[in-house]
Amino acid sequence: MLEALLNFEILRNTFYTGLIVGLLAPLLGTFIVVRRLSLISDGLSHVTLAGISFGLLMQKKYTLLMFTPFHTGILFSVIGAIVIENLRHVYKSFQEIAIPITLSVGVGLSVVFIALADGINTDIYAYLFGSVAAVSRTDLYVVLFTAIFVLIVIIFLYKELFALSFDEEFATVSGIRAKIIHYLFIIMTALVIAASIRIVGVLLVSALMTLPVATAMRIAKSFKQTLIFSIIYGEIAVILGLVTGYYFEIPPGGTIVITAALLLGLTLLVKKWYLAYIYRG
């Protein structure tokens, strides 16, 4: 694996992108889980699939199209995020209905675009489950730019995001511009989901945003600890998943998620044994 990284640029791009995704997905996932919006990643991932399918269709019909399916996927994801936030304001008493509405539209559009593009091919398969060798240098730059943007926003608006995640009413009364920050947060989520799809795949990206967080919550004693442990677990899952996927020649999305699930199971067992030991002591 190390020799391949040194010799092949595309594998280096994939590895660097994986490290960035392993940081971003659990980082935003922590805020998402605390807000009880875990399913939003599923909704936006399916909207992103619609964008990717549209991009593949445009590439087939208009070969001179400047934008790749990855770029159209990002565009659709951001639009889907804005739609979800608007629907949450429309259905104030039933805000969770915004996610299945958007997810359903995303799935419907995906089916139509894939059918018009003459069905599932190797390209769409890589987007569904991730690929070890599908990340170009341009994709890496897009993911890196996304990471810089997300980290800057979180650093400068950490207190506001923290307050809105735990007590939105109090935060609003305190003078925090909740509406603007909500839109900014959900757009960041859309960008991270779209960026993660190259590595993890549409069908599995939500797992990378929730499993490391679920694992960290079992051992963390504060929100900041949850953030840190989530990132650590996310990076471990991505690195081991990419290495395993490379050697077994299978999509890395599955191996990354299985690794994250094994880390969760191991943490739960160790915590259970530790509590039993303390109780007996």
Automatic annotation (TrEMBL):
Q: How does it sit in the membrane?
A: Multi-pass membrane protein
Which InterPro entries does the UniProt entry name for this protein? ABC_BtuC-like, ABC_TroCD
Record localization? Cell membrane; Membrane
**Keywords recorded for this protein, A-Z:** Membrane, Transmembrane, Transmembrane helix, Transport
- TM segment ranges: 15-34, 64-85, 97-120, 140-159, 180-197, 227-248, 254-275
**Leader sequence segment:** none
Q: Which CDD domains match?
A: TM_ABC_iron-siderophores_like
Gene3D superfamilies assigned to the protein according to its UniProt record, in alphabetical order? ABC transporter involved in vitamin B12 uptake, BtuC
Pfam families in the cross-refs: ABC-3
Similarity section: Belongs to the ABC-3 integral membrane protein family.
User: What name goes with this protein?
Assistant: Zinc transport system permease protein
Q: What is the lineage of its organism?
A: Bacteria, Bacillati, Bacillota, Bacilli, Bacillales
